[in-house]
Specification:
The complex is a heterodimer of chains A (292) and B (347). With 292 residues, chain A is an alpha/beta fold. Chain A has 2 domains: 2-119, Up-down Bundle (Glutathione S-transferase Yfyf (Class Pi), Chain A, domain 2), CATH 1.20.1050.140; 137-291, Rossmann fold (3-Layer(aba) Sandwich). Helix content of chain A is 48%, strand content 10%. Chain A contains 14 helices and 8 strands. In chain A, the strands form 2 sheets. In chain A, strands 2-1-3-4 form a 4-stranded parallel beta sheet. In chain A, strands 6-5-7-8 form a 4-stranded parallel beta sheet, with helices on both faces. In chain A, helix 1 crosses helix 13, helix 3 (52-69) crosses helix 4 (78-90) and helix 3 (52-69) crosses helix 5. The longest helix of chain A has 18 residues, at 52-69. Chain A is globular, with a radius of gyration of 19 Å. Chain B folds into 3 domains: 2-107, Ubiquitin-like (UB roll), CATH 3.10.20; 110-236, Orthogonal Bundle (Fumarate Reductase Iron-sulfur Protein, Chain B, domain 2), CATH 1.10.1060.10; 247-315, no CATH class. Chain B has 15 helices and 7 strands. In chain B, strands 2-1-5-3-4 form a 5-stranded mixed beta sheet. In chain B, strands 6-7 form a two-stranded antiparallel sheet. In chain B, a hairpin with a 2-residue loop joins strand 3 (63-66) and strand 4 (69-72). Chain B is globular and about 70 Å long. Chain B starts with a strand and ends in a 24-residue tail after the last helix. The chains are: A alpha/beta (292), B alpha+beta (347). At the A-B interface, helix 2, helix 3, helix 4, helix 5 and helix 8 of A face helix 6, helix 9, helix 10, helix 11 and helix 12 of B.
Amino acid sequence: MDVAYYPGCVAKGGAPELYRSVKLILEPLGIRPTELFDAACTGAGVLTERNPLLADALNGRTFAMAERKGMPIMTICSTCTGTMLACNARLQDGGYRARVNELLAPEKYEYQGGTAIKHLLWMLVEDVGLERVGGLVRRPLEGLRVAPFYGCYLVRPSALVDEGRPDRERYLERLIETLGGQAVEYEGARKCCGFPVITMNRTNGLKMTGRNIADAKEHGADIMVTPCPLCHLNLDGQQEEAARALGVPLGVPILHLPQLIGLAFGFTPSQLGMSHHLVRPGAVLARYAQAV
Amino acid sequence: MDVTLSVQRHNPDANPATWWQDYTVTVPDHATVLDALLAVRDEQDESLTVRCSCRSHICGSCVMRIDGRSALGCKTKVAEALRRGGAEGRVRVQPAGNMAVLKDLAVDLEGFFGKVRAVQPWLQPVGPEPEREYLVPNEAMLRVRDAMACILCGACVSACNSLEVDDRFLGPAALAKAWRFTEDPRDGHDRDRLEFLSSVPGGIWDCTHCFACVEVCPKDVKPMERIIELRRRAMDAGFTDNNGARHSQAFRDTIAHSGWLDETKVAVRSVRGPDELLDWVGVGARSFLRGKVPLRHKAIPGALRVTAIVSAAERTAAGSARGGAAAGAAPHGAPGHGPGSGGGSGA
């Protein structure tokens, strides 16, 4: 299927491994991306907070680009997804949309309200189908205990994000099992990673990060997986600091969603850009590679 | 219908440890979790402590965690909990989170109400009192009414991710209450309130944007959205000497400049100064060595168009802020709705 691909800022900035691994897995999945190179940042909720009209205009512009192509938008970030869904909900109001379209008029964009927004995770389950995903597995993640970490924006508020599919909050678990791994159940899976307050209250942000990782570890996780690169920036990037803030050792590798899929499809850790990680997944993956 | 309730019990006066106890009761199909707990207390174990009063989700007494989700026991049907919970015929019940347990499902609400009192939840008009009642525009009160629906049950506080790591955070209920008074056209102390809320430790900038309060509120008060509006109003009122406002400004500036986020610039500009920047040296250096700090930030092709949209949207927003209550705002009722530009001084 054809999608208007919106990678988001972090995949093209602080998490180049995410951008690279998405590219690898889309072809076997039959997803043909047309990247929206000219789309702006969603504002990640921060712009909505500051000036909702501005956030809605920038996102409306992106939606109009996809609408013109007749494709749904595919995101690879929980925060982008949730922010876009909230903007799109507001833009269903015709009068308000007309005001936003006035801001887009100089560029000849006009959003009609018809663009669908889907995270890659949702597409895997709802459009590609887990059966097909399972059929592509070359190296099942046997014996690997994987803790899912969703990112708030992908699960809340459910009235906005489940779009009539309340089981979306368990897609990661289903995907992990499709890939042959074992999904770890723990309370932190749908909690906040602490990233939104990391520059405002660093201690609080680090404690949130650390508690979730510690929780996953206590429940037996070898690794964690997240569909949100902002969560990854905290869970991986700041894990050492989080361990110090909490006073407990952590050392749990964090994979981006397409990296976990890529591994099971037979790509190597280096193809999937894992050398960029601050918590090196090497030891855990070596153990798993031996077991396979 | 038979249901097994796994109840997390605790009697801190007698024993520091908590324990789980299972009770199986027969209840009607329409029973709530509270009904089932009261049946347990009446029929099997009178030592089980449950706090409740109205049983009709009006009083807000029976907040608890049902299969991990903060909710009113009297508003959650057993059948619904079973459907959601997944575990065969079993519902897990725990006391509300982020509050000390007095016994079993009764928690200590002193801290909760202390924080509500800290935001001075009463009208503080300025100027001479009107001869008769205050007259206010209907639309202004309609907005406020949604937040007035709060029954102070504490479900939002129980679910709050920020409170899990920092007890100083005023929390969603108190901040939603604060919003209600800054929005009330009869109140004349908006600026004082906004200054307090943006500078006090545990104020509006400590909300972590996790939507947990929005998700669990039994009255749809949407506390997090009130906090977001408080932040906007505080920034608009000029209370910007804090990392939250610095982050917001840096975010806006980098998008206005290149169309997308220059993460390094945002991080550097979001902190107070060199002393705070020191905290970031370690992670910055390690990220750089792993190739996670782009050396060059290239603008998107239409960056100039984005800059123009930013300017135009900001002009419109400034115009509508002068224009009065919520004019120029996003439509109401939709998630994350429009700016709180209403609220002049009283009378």
